[in-house]
Amino acid sequence: MPDLRLALAQADTCVGDLVGNARLVLDAVAAAAAGGARLVALPEMTLAGYPVEDLALRAAFRDDAMAAVDALARDLADAGHGDVTVVVGTIGTTNTPDGPRPTNRAVALREGRVVATYDKRHLPTYGVFDEARIFEPGTTTTVLDVDGHRVGLLVCEDLWRADGPVAELADADLDLLLVLNGSPYEEGKDPERLGHARRAAATVGAPVAYVNQVGGQDDLVLEGGSFVLDVSGQVVARSPQFEPDLLVHDVPRRGGTLARGRVAPPLHPDEEVYRACVAGLAGYVRKNGFRSVVLGLSGGIDSALVAVMAADAIGGENVVGISMPSSYSSQHSKDDAADLARRIGADYRVQPIGGTVDAFERDLPLDGVAAENLQARVRGMILMSLSNAEGHLTLATGNKSELAVGYSTVYGDAVGGYAPLKDVLKSRVWALARWRDDHALDHGKIPPIPESSITKPPSAELRPGQVDQDSLPPYDRLDSVLEDYVGRNLGHDALLAAGHDPATIELVLRLVDRAEWKRRQYPPGPKVTAVAFGRDRRLPVTSRRREASAPIPTTTSKEQP
Q: Is 156 noted as a catalytic residue in this protein?
């Protein structure tokens, strides 16, 4: 019996776009069939989009999704692909004592109809997932016959559990275990994912084919990276991360040897995080109907990196950068902002804020931090006014370190519809900027970020001679504490035991815990770490944290409660 030619189509879908997502399936199957594929697999929830969340609870949408499955099966047959088996993720419906309930379903299409279904068994409720509330779990296993090859089906979390369907398929004499996934990106997650796939391959005695969604959806990034591994656990074929791809590979009958095919090389950690942020930004812009973005260009590292990410995501010609100098803005910062805009081909404009600030203060005199933050709020008003007038999506340029300790101004530099660096610590911002410039040099291009933007001390430039370290610990010390307190959930005593400076611990914990109200108002941004603000991290407000005896320093240059 000949090998089974398999195609894994990692697609960039949009939640709720049944028609557009079905078109992606048709195009992928056409390309795969042209290459001789007999089995084409697309990711979890391809037709509905992922993460579908509470949209799955709408009976009307479930009805439309089921109708879309039937229409897709007919369209595939009408296009001449009826003899190809197509496995695709969608929403199903099952009857329960409480009435119809949605399921997270894989459907197999052939000869114009649905020939098999499988409902996801393990429904995760940790991290970004809330599936047990939304879906009804499946109860059975499914094995497809494709040209005489026995193919078992799983959906995402089912692979991560040793019990349930993986164990039940151990004696099914499978030729292939096919897993449909909508697995969000987190830095460092891949080894764990591969470990579960290797365990499953060993359990069922067959290769594992893993097809994953790709692209940004809201604050999640689906990374792609689809793969095929053999029974011994060796990856024999792999798609690149963060871009749509069609991975075609031949699978022999049980016991046969898989040849090595196309294997995308792993990305450098900084490149991986950078590309995840770019993918999240590109998806958010496109899927929300925008074509351009606007942001403030201060000449500093954060706005520079966000601008370059935006240029990589949607093209520099679609980036509007606004320099909004005040009397405290240094000439080198203004020069760096203009230089950056030239390098990426952005629409660069200069809008001084002095007159607007003066007019406001004539009616409402302010001093101290309130006067400093007025400058940030005037800048925010300018950006949102241009967004409103010209239809751009406003980007917030703050990073995770600033967000953690509340070093931002509500309705000022925190305005915007999307925050590409929301889950990137300040120390990593510098590393990503350096990687991006080095990447340009490696490809014979001019580095997009001016060197001085990377090397000069960070400053909000809201008063003479200001630098961030007037109010905060050095970023290497700050970020080290944040990694342990936020990322690893270490408490005060554990932080001391880890060797952190006691005074730094006290300051950082106090700032982090009291800035929750600000984080709740911050725009969404791409989740790239295991613990991201907004998705995973909720800090309690306790009486200890509100003690008057432990005030926040009044010297902090941005707004505090």
A: yes
- Residue of 14, 120, 272, 426 with catalytic role: 120
Position 259, amino acid = A
Going by their DSSP bridges, the two strands 319-323 and 293-296 should be labelled as: parallel
Query: Partners of 110 in the beta sheet?
Result: 113
Structure confidence at residue 556 as a pLDDT band (50, 70, 90) = very low
Spatial CA neighbour of 160 closest among 128, 193, 182:
193
Q: In sequence order, what DSSP letters do the residues of 392-436 get, joined into one string?
A: PEEBP---HHHHHHT-S-TTTTT-SSB-TTTT--HHHHHHHHHHH
Q: pLDDT for 225-251, tens place per residue?
A: 999 999 999 999 999 999 999 999 999
Amino acid at 394: T
pLDDT mean across residues, the chain? 93
User: CA quadruple 515, 521, 522, 526: dihedral positive or negative?
Assistant: positive
Written as one letter, the residue type at 410 is V
Question: What is the DSSP-derived secondary structure letter of residue 156?
Answer: G
What are the DSSP calls for 496-515, one per residue? HHTT--HHHHHHHHHHHHHT
Q: Which residue out of 14, 136, 156, 223 is catalytically annotated? A: 156
The pLDDT score that the predictor gives to residue 550 is 39
- Rounded CA separation 225/227 (Å): 6
Q: Which residues pair with 229 in a beta bridge?
A: 208, 235
Q: If you ran DSSP here, which 8-state letter would residue 98 be given? A: T
Residue 9 pLDDT exceeds 80: yes
pLDDT tens-digit series, residues 67-120: 999 999 999 999 999 999 999 999 999 999 999 999 999 999 999 999 999 999
Q: 123, 87, 86, 85: which is closest to 104 by C-alpha?
A: 123
Residue 53 CB contacts under 8 Å (≥ 6 apart), including other chains: 15, 130, 134
Taking a C-beta distance cutoff of 8 angstroms, is the pair 430, 421 a contact?
A: no
Q: What is the pLDDT of residue 539?
A: 56
Q: What is the pLDDT of residue 1?
A: 73
Catalytic residue among 14, 44, 136, 277: 44
Host H or E run for residue 77: helix 59-78
- 378 vs 143, 230, 322, 369, 375, CA distance in Å? 62, 59, 13, 14, 5
506 within 8 A of 257, measured Cβ to Cβ: no
Residue 287: which residues within 8 A CB-CB, separation 6 or more? 14, 15, 216, 217
Name which of 39, 38, 29, 43 is nearest 72 in CA terms.
Answer: 29
Whether 44 is a known active-site residue: answer yes
Is residue 110 a contact partner of residue 87, using CB atoms and an 8 Å limit? no
Question: How far is residue 36's CA from residue 377's CA, in Å, rounded to a whole number?
Answer: 59
